[in-house]
Amino acid sequence: MIKKVLVVGAGQMGAGIAQVCAQAGLEVLLNDQKEEAVQKGLGSIDKLLSRSVEKGRITEEEKKATQNRLTTSTGLQDAGDCDLVIEAVVEKMEVKKTVFRELDGIVPQHAILATNTSSLAITEIAAVTKRPDQVIGMHFMNPVPVMKLVEIIRGLQTSDETFQAIEDLTQRLGKVPVSAKDFPGFVSNRILMPMINEAIFAVYEGVATVEDIDTSMKLGMNHPMGPLTLADFIGLDTCLYIMEVLHEGFADSKYRPCPLLKQYVQAGWLGKKSGRGFYNYDETTG
Ligand code: NAI
Prior knowledge:
single chain, 286 residues, alpha/beta, eight-stranded mixed sheet, globular, binds 1,4-dihydronicotinamide adenine dinucleotide, 6PGD_dom2, 6-PGluconate_DH-like_C_sf, EC 1.1.1.157, 3-hydroxybutyryl-CoA dehydrogenase
């Protein structure tokens, strides 16, 4: 039975994952390298819970009880009694391997190590641990408190018990699990990211304006959000990492990242989280 969860990485995904776990009654330890990131994560959880209280979805007492189940840390030394780790650090294989190697030596033997990776190979991450049968992909969607889907990805050595435990937990969190094999991008991003990349090529080639591309997909295809808005919400750095994983993993030029996407990331235009992407989110300049 999973009772205590360590969430590593308190960015937009980690904070959301910590929130839904705490709301489902789990004890949660939210970790990040930087104290300011932890505080930012807690701040965004507080904001979302307050909004839920205002809308009558939860009571003030439920908000407080959720927050009481949340503790934070900037080191992994407090992780000795967790049953599950959900890692949500930056989408870079070397960083994830370092985190998993370290966690493997700290968390209890029975603990499951899950990664929220959008595209990286679970089997490769699992291989740096001594418990590859207890390593699994648990891919939440953004924003986590709102989106129902969790893609569960088995690495080559993931055991049936591990899969079952994560499938059960997903349901406990009020989410809907789907199962995917360990292929680059799994299912959701293998389909989504080439569409976003193509939309960026359309900007790059001057086919249409950013607004008109988004409107085409919203009103023409009934998508709730245009691909460029969605890219800004996901983070353009994350979009680029995923395209690079698809490109390298399938060795197929159809997945080459658009040069404009690379340039935006080089400029630090990472989308909503940095204040600027295809749209401008900087409140000071409007
Ligand atoms: P983010 O950039 O908002 O947050 C990443 C956080 O990890 C930062 O706060 C950073 O300080 C922290 N971090 C980096 N190295 C660390 C370490 N060694 N130990 C502890 N904390 C560390 O990124 P975001 O968007 O939350 O993405 C995180 C993961 O979730 C990535 O693997 C991404 O592919 C995946 N993901 C992202 C989605 C999105 O829409 N942004 C959707 C689904 C999955």
